[in-house]
Structures are given as C-alpha cells and as structure tokens.
Amino acid sequence: MRRTTTTDVLVVGAGPAGLATALTALRHGARVLVVERRTGTSTVPRATGVSTRTMELFRFWGVDLAVRAGGVDCDPRVAVTHTLAAAPDELVPFTYPSIRESLAVSPAYPAVCAQDHIEPVLAAEIRRLGGEIRFGTTLTGLDTAPDGVRAALGPAGAVRARYVVGADGPRSAVRAAVGIGWEHLGSLGEFVNVLFRPDLGALLGRRLPGIVFVKHPDAECVLVPVGAGRWTATRRWDPVRGESAADYTPARWTALLRTATGISGLEPEFLASGAFTMAADVATTVRAGPAFVVGDAAHRMTPMGGIGMNTAIHDGHELGWRLAWAVRGIAGEALVDSYAAERGPLGRALAARSLLEERRPDDGLPTDLGRTYRSPVIADDGAAPARGHVRTARPGERAPHVWVRRHGRRVSVLDLFEDRMTVLTGPAGAGWTGATRGRGHVPLQVLVAGRDLPDPRGALRTAYRLGPDSAVLVRPDGVVAWRHDGRCADPGPALARAVDAALGRRVPEAARVA
Fold first, then answer.
1. Which of 64, 225, 359, 419 is the most buried if burial means most Cβ atoms within 10 Å?
2. Is residue 93 a part of any domain in this protein?
3. In terms of domains, do 165 and 192 share one?
4. In degrees rounded to 5, what are phi and psi of residue 434?
5. Domains contained in the chain, number
6. Whether this model's pTM surpasses 0.85
7. Cα–Cα distances in angstroms (integers) from residue 460 to residues 108, 392, 449, 450, 463, in the given order
8. What phi and psi, each to the nearest 5 degrees, are found at residue 240?
9. Exposed, middle or buried, 76 (CB in 10 Å: 0-12/13-18/19+)?
C-alpha cells in the first residue's frame, strides 16, 4: 500500500525558485515537502549572476558566506574582443552595480556564483530547518480543491497539502495540471553551448572578464567563467544556412574554441553540451486556486541582463511567507492572492525585458531594488511609482537600508523585518507601541527611532521620512505596506485597520494612506 504524506506546502521542483519558496515557508513556520524528478541538484552551472537583492536574501537566511565561498574570481566587466588572448576592443561594466554602489543602498553586494553551487547550499539549509527534499520523485497526478491538493508521486505514494507550488520549469507539470496557459513573448534565436575545462584564465596567466563576446568571424561566441576551473561557450546556429545543432561535435567545438580563445594548442575537456532556444514566455496567471507557479514555470527568460535566476529566487521569497502565514491562520485570502497581483506583472515585464539585447537605463539596481508593488493589501497613496532605485518608504516600495544599532549590535534595519510585521515610528511615536496590544498571534513589533533604534544623525528618520508622530508598516518581505504621517488621535484602531489590510483579512477604505 502506497503511503500518503500530509504537509502544508508541496513544492514541485528543487531549482532556485523551489528551494527559495521552501526555505522561506519553513522559516515562517510551515511544514514543507520538496519533490524533484532529478536525482540531485543541478550538475551544470546554468545561471551565475547573483544580484544585490538576492544576496540580501542569502544574508537574511544565513547562507551568504557559503554562497560566496563558491564564487567565480573574475574581472567584473564585459569584454568585446577578436579572441580571448587578444587585448579587448572594449571593456564595459556589468549591468550589475559595483560593490561601492550596492553598499550605498544595501547591506549586501552582488556575486558571481554558479547555480550548481547555490542549489546544494539552499538544500542543506532546508534540511537543517527540518524540511524534506525527495529527489528522484516525479509528480504523476494532481487534483485540486478549494481547501487543498492531492498529488500523486508514482511509486513514491501521494501527498496531501494545503498549497502546491510549481517550480518545475517552463514545461511545468503543475501548471499544465491546473490549466494555466503559456504565452510566447518572443525569441532571440537558436543556440548551442558547451561546458568545458581547463581554466582559460590559468592558461593565459591573467584574471579575465566575467563575460567575453568573441567577434572572430570564424568563431563568434560568448565565453563565461563559471567556477571550479570551468568555462562555457555559447554560439548561435542558423538553420536557414543549413546548420544543425548536431553539427557541433567535440571536434568542431575544439576547433572553434582554439580560434575563439587564441590558444592554438587548447585541449578542452568537455563536461556537458546542449542546444536551446533563447526565448521568453510567461504564464497567463501565476495562481489557480491552491496552486501557484514560480520561476521558470511562471516566466521563462533569456540570459540577457542576468535576471532569470534572481527573479525566480525573489518569487519564492515573496510567496513562501504568504503561504506560511495563511497556513498558520495569521493571513487572509487577500494576502495569498496578492502574490499574483504583485509578482505576475513584474515577471511579465522582466521576461519581455530579457528579449532586448541593448542595455537600458533601468538595468541593475533600479530593476533589482526599485520595483513598486500595487495590490489590495498595500495602501494606495495615489502617487505614481518613483523612478530609480532610491526608496523613500512609500507604500509598495522596498524599505530603505540604513545601518542602526540594536541590542548593542550594528545591523541593517532590513534585518529587523524578516520574520514579522514591523512598525517604525518617529521619536514621538511611543503611542503606537500600545496600539499593538490585542493583535493576538500576529508577529508584530513597534520600533521607535531614537528610543529602540538610536539615530543620532537622523539617518533613519531621513530615509523613512519619519516625522515626530509618523508610523511606517513594513512586511516581512521588506515591502512598505502602509504609512501614517502627522498626529493620530487614536493610534490603536488606525494600526489595527492597517495591519488587517496588510494581512488580507479585510481591506477597508480607512486603511488608505492617511
């Protein structure tokens, strides 16, 4: 008799999106089971760019040092050159910001680290927190009902869960099972790639750029270092000219790489190869009842701009806490549904952006940190979204980073938001503290600038525009949900309405920005 497992959240897929969903849900108190048809984590590097916001999340989760330990040592620039050995014709910065630029607005900074190093780090942390990951387990059936799902896992049995999350890639079985459509946005062509050793930097005796566009007419390709002495080469092939992906045999790759690198005696060791269409597609919705899709199952992106893996991880972080709080009875249905309202349009916009080969002014920090969400659980201040990445603690924005002292330690104020709702108030805002009484099991804290968080130079008050009586409500994902400026005659009911609205328990007109 096959066994049936019961859990709160079933995650199908153990890539970055699925692992981020599981890890966040676990940290917020849900029971989680991850199933993955592969026999283990990724064996190829796939994505390598880790954005500022993603490194913030890794820092919150306590895995940032383990991730950086597998980082790629490279010159953080993009080179355009005739061959790798030749002096580059052009060197330009990554679309990612410099360390200095990131640390001006964040406690973290970007990294270059391959996905096949990141996945085991996240999987180990999930297991440390008590989550279960079953590799070599395939979803073979899925039935949904308003109160949950029943998933068939073939010989492995079945699972009953309150929610199911499809993190199983662009051919998502979860998405297909619940009837979510798939829309093609466009394509940049057909490509082949190969993963190989040895380390080209070691052969040439110098630190090489993180992305190299080789423009040799006989060997045009993109070379990328991916760690552990490995490199990838990616090249467009054209069926119109009679080419086939099958033409790229080891012998042809060897000849091509010798020309592209300028190392005539190069003897590459080939580790993996493949062909793919560089395309962008999106799900027509990211929720269907108790089922959700994240990462490539929700929005397939091209590698342009290095935003695919980062967006997938952000999806998981944004969804995981919502599901956990709903399971625990803290949040209402509107908060769960706000994942679709907030992440759906953003995923579509980023997928479309990945089809553009030229740089855009909003690449980098503006895309990574500068989003503004709109949904029924975020109070509407009536203003248009701000431009750029500098945030001013308006509803829908990522809360600004400021270094503060808490219990004698120097921390980012962002560190104080991760596991609860937080109200930041101005120096005269002690009245908001009493307003938290009677909030029951809602994780909620009030921090008064100058009292709980010393602010001798006014950096916190400036960043959050805290007047003496101001109050700013920040969600566990670091998004501002509501603010009140000026005196409040009765802070208890005002805060109760704001918290209930932010939790999706009700969305009254009174919860609008005061």
1. 225
2. no
3. no
4. -65, -20
5. 3
6. yes
7. 18, 11, 7, 9, 5
8. -65, -30
9. middle
